[in-house]
Design brief:
The complex is a heterodimer of chains A (93) and B (433).
Chain A: H1 3-9, E1 12-13, E2 20-22, H2 25-31, H3 37-40, E3 46-49, E4 54-57, H4 67-71, E5 77-79, E6 87-88
Chain B: E1 6-12, H1 16-27, E2 32-35, E3 50-52, H2 53-59, E4 73-82, E5 85-92, E6 103-105, H3 108-121, E7 125-127, E8 132-138, E9 141-147, E10 153-161, H4 168-172, E11 184-193, H5 196-202, E12 210-217, E13 225-231, E14 235-243, H6 244-250, H7 254-263, H8 265-271, E15 275-285, E16 296-297, E17 300-302, H9 318-337, H10 343-354, H11 357-364, H12 368-374, H13 381-394, H14 401-415, H15 418-432
Parallel strand pairs in B: 1-2, 1-10, 2-7, 4-12, 10-17
Antiparallel strand pairs in B: 3-6, 4-5, 8-9, 9-10, 11-14, 11-15, 12-13, 13-14, 16-17
Classes of the chains: A alpha+beta (93), B alpha/beta (433).
């Protein structure tokens, strides 16, 4: 089963603004070789955009686990919770 | 929000730890508020999930009469996977299907919502859809919390942080340092629906009974972690969790690991024909005793996952959460009644926990996190040895048994030298025994 299909099953109250931000794009470009955020995230929120030469953040799919916050070797992700009531809302949990 | 109203106790987070703290505080006459960021209590909450009966009964006697539980667990099984093979062991006790039970499978979005209703019925005020952003200070003293709402300051005497594994407020307050990838496991889980009879047939269960299956070794591709299948009423919880440091090192994706697990012959047949209903991800605090933050300061206590109170070896978390929450609720009430909100007064919370299984167990296994990080063979070589030995032992091929035993021993020592075997067993004994 594809990840996108799984994320489609989750109920989100999506906020208009992102609760996740890359602090310094240059750190991803120049210093971060393996870019763990692009594979450790259960929802694959982060992808490396070759054309734009930066990490793209699809915060809409975030399951708010915090793996990227701790897994980023440069602490380069400004991580917070979505605003109250927004974000993931599990049916089962 | 109530800018002028003052509470005795403010609890951040409506999970088992926070709700246990709030209920205990209210029972001791404290005016108590719980602030939860989710749409409802439980909306953000995830565990495997096995809920243990005895510790939960300490909070709500005979909760199982009315709580939304999935199935009472009558069997715990373990499978060490190697290639397509599996070495299994387990224990079944049919008496666990009846009160006083041992454990139930639960779905936290449902259970926590119910628990919050119970708390409200006892007089706890629960505010949802509200993120706590920081503590409020007057000088050095904590006097409440700041929320993300307009005019969202809430004043209170004692703040109990039950905010979960990421513990952002505890970190801001200087109680928590930044967690490292070696301190948390990334876990993902699917709810896979199946007809009740199919679940009961596949796990050899009487009607309504449940089982748990932990999968080790090859299940996690040799990474430090476990996979699991738990039976719910009409679904299975199928998940896997590995240490974040391992995932970073191996460039592994949690969902890929879950898909790999689901395709394993031992797992495939159990979930066959099921339909995935939900997918979720969560961090599990696995740092153990040595990674426990400072659990208190003037006017503040840290409970549950926020305090790293998880016993990964024994798959226990929600019980530690509730027991820590109850202890904090009691200490808060005592401190408020005696008008002493000092750090020394809050320290009683930690002293209490030291007398319970919560800190005793975590202390007992204080070296286990380190042991497994330094000795990956326990998750790679040993499952292989176990499987290889069993395969040889059970293969009937006209070889005399004495020769067979020699062959097995040769295989074992070929995978791990004798001296290393002895050292490994000694290390394991010293850490676990």
């Amino acid at each position: 089963m594809k990840l996108d299909d799984k994320l489609y099953l989750i109920r989100y109250n999506t906020d208009k603004e992102s609760h996740l931000t890359i602090t310094e794009d240059d750190v991803c470009r120049k210093e971060c070789k393996h870019k763990p955020c692009t594979f450790i995230c259960p929802a694959r929120v982060y992808t490396w955009d070759e054309e734009e030469n930066r990490i793209k953040v699809y915060y809409e799919g975030c399951v708010e686990c915090g793996a990227c916050r701790i897994g980023c070797p440069y602490s380069n992700i400004k991580w917070g919770y979505p605003r109250g009531g927004y974000g993931v809302a599990y049916k089962n949990g | 929000m109530r800018a002028v109203e003052e509470f005795d106790v403010i609890v951040v987070g409506a999970g088992p730890a926070g709700l246990a703290a709030a209920m205990t505080a209210v029972r001791n006459g404290m005016k108590t508020i719980v602030i939860e960021r989710g749409e409802f209590p439980g909306a953000k909450n995830v565990m495997g999930g096995v809920l243990y009966t005895q510790p939960t009964s300490r909070l709500i006697p005979e909760f199982y009469q009315e709580a939304p539980l999935e199935r009472p667990v009558v069997e715990q099984r373990y499978a060490f996977l190697e290639g397509d093979n599996a070495f299994t062991a387990g224990y079944r006790a049919p008496a666990w299907a009846d009160p006083p039970y041992n454990a139930h499978t639960v779905l936290r979005a449902k259970f926590d919502r119910w628990l919050a209703k119970k708390a409200e019925a006892e007089g706890v005020l629960i505010i949802t859809e509200t993120v706590v952003e920081d503590l409020l200070y007057k000088g050095d003293a904590v006097v409440g919390v700041r929320t993300g709402r307009a005019e969202g300051d809430v004043r209170g005497k004692v703040v109990i942080l039950a905010e979960g594994v990421n513990a952002l407020i505890a970190k801001k307050a200087g109680l928590h340092t930044q967690l490292g990838p070696e301190h948390v496991a990334v876990a993902v889980k699917e709810i896979i629906s199946l007809p009740r009879e199919k679940i009961e047939d596949r796990f050899c269960l009487e009607e309504g009974q449940g089982a748990t299956l932990e999968l080790l070794g090859g299940a996690t591709a040799g990474m430090i972690g476990t996979a699991f299948i738990y039976t719910n009423q009409d679904s299975l919880s199928v998940g896997i969790g590995c240490l974040l440091s391992e995932m970073v090192k191996r460039q592994a994706n949690p969902n890929d690991l879950l898909e790999r697990l689901k395709a394993h012959p031992f797992v495939r047949k159990l979930i066959q024909g099921g339909e995935t209903k939900e997918y979720m991800g969560h961090l599990i605090p696995e740092g153990g005793y040595k990674a426990i933050p400072k659990m208190y300061r003037q006017g503040v206590m840290v409970v549950g996952d926020a305090g790293m109170l998880v016993n990964g070896i024994h798959r226990e978390g929600s019980n530690l959460a509730m027991v820590s929450g109850m202890a904090a609720g009691e200490v808060a009430a005592g401190a408020i009644n005696s008008h002493d909100l000092s750090e020394q007064s809050m320290k009683l919370y930690q002293d209490r926990l030291k007398e319970t299984f919560v800190l005793k167990d975590l202390y007992k296994y204080r070296n286990s996190a380190h042991l497994f990080e330094e000795n990956p063979q326990f998750f790679t070589t040993y499952p292989e040895i176990l499987s290889g030995a069993a395969r040889e032992f059970f293969t009937v091929d006209s070889m005399p048994k004495a020769d067979k035993q020699k062959k097995i021993w040769k295989m074992v020592t070929g995978k791990r030298a004798k001296g290393d075997l002895i050292r490994d067993m000694w290390k394991l004994w010293r850490t676990m025994g």
